[in-house]
């Protein structure tokens, strides 16, 4: 099992990060992908895969953090990101994307411009994109209709846009990841979307420390909870958990260019 989206560097893990990682391996995980949310985290994150190849990272600027950064520095941040990606060590570009609630602090025009920059870097460096989209799917679709496509692909992280929107992203070749909400009692849209995703485009995540699955809902999530998410996905799809876990692991390894080593025997 590979957790394709886990903010293990978040401050909520500061008290027990090492124990969280130990629990993840004990739960059967083979890999964890940590997406950056802002420029100040890029160098520290790049140190992690050097210590443990089971932990890989993506580099980018989360749209929710744009209001904390001066708009006039966006170009400089993207230039620095380009330089870091040129050195290797990251397996993806992101987390990046569009965020509706952030529009008041980071206008849509700015969010789109920064996302275009991320997509250009993904094309240049041959890396997949970890895409965030919350309440701005029409704007993202408009952008993706005109933007050159990253050859390595786009992963729609914690997808919640429903089945109809998913069909556009499927046609464009996107991968999809699902988190804790697929286990929640009231889940409808993510389950409807899950059922139309091509099997070879499906992966799983925890989005830790947020979106904890049942029975941990309301608590801090962690990568060791991934088996609960896979169980929820398997139940919705009507297939064995083990088969889904194996397939999503293989899909993740293929998407991230075999970055995660297979388990030692």
From TrEMBL:
List the SUPFAM superfamilies: Metallo-dependent hydrolases
The lineage's top-level taxon is Bacteria
* GO function terms (MF aspect): hydrolase activity, acting on ester bonds; metal ion binding
Supply the alphabetized keyword list: Hydrolase, Metal-binding
User: Quick one: which residues bind a divalent metal cation 1?
Assistant: 5, 7, 95, 207
- GO CC annotation: cytosol
Residues bound to a divalent metal cation 2 are 132, 157
Does the keyword field hold Plastid? no
Q: Which InterPro entries match?
A: DNase_TatD-rel_CS, Metal_Hydrolase, TatD-like
- For whether the record's keyword set contains Transport, the answer is no
What PANTHER family has UniProt attached to this entry? D-AMINOACYL-TRNA DEACYLASE (PTHR46124), HYDROLASE (PTHR46124:SF3)
Family, similarity comment: Belongs to the metallo-dependent hydrolases superfamily. TatD-type hydrolase family.
Name used for this protein in its record: TatD family deoxyribonuclease
Write down the species: Corallococcus sicarius
């Amino acid at each position: 099992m590979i957790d394709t989206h886990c903010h293990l560097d978040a401050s909520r893990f500061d008290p027990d990060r090492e124990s969280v990682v130990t629990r993840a391996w004990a739960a059967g995980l083979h890999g964890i992908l940590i997406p950056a949310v802002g420029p100040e985290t890029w160098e520290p994150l790049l140190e992690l895969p050097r210590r443990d190849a089971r932990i890989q990272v993506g580099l980018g600027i989360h749209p929710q953090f744009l209001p904390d950064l001066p708009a006039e520095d966006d170009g400089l941040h993207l230039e620095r990101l380009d330089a870091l990606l040129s050195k290797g060590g990251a397996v993806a570009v992101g987390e990046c994307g569009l965020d509706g609630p952030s529009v008041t602090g980071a206008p849509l025009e700015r969010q789109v411009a920064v996302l275009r920059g991320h997509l250009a870097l993904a094309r240049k460096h041959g890396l997949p994109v970890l895409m965030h989209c919350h309440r701005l799917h029409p704007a993202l679709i408009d952008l993706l209709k005109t933007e050159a496509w990253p050859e390595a692909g786009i992963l729609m992280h914690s997808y919640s846009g429903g089945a109809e929107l998913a069909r556009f992203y499927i046609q464009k070749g996107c991968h999809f990841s699902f988190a804790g909400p697929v286990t929640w009692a009231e889940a409808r849209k993510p389950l409807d979307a899950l059922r139309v995703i091509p099997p070879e485009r499906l992966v799983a995540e925890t989005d830790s420390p947020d979106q904890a699955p049942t029975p941990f809902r309301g608590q801090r999530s962690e990568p060791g909870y991934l088996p609960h998410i896979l169980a929820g996905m398997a139940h919705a799809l009507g297939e064995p958990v083990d088969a889904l876990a194996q397939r999503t692991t293989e899909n993740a390894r293929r998407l991230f260019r075999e970055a995660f080593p297979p388990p030692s025997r």
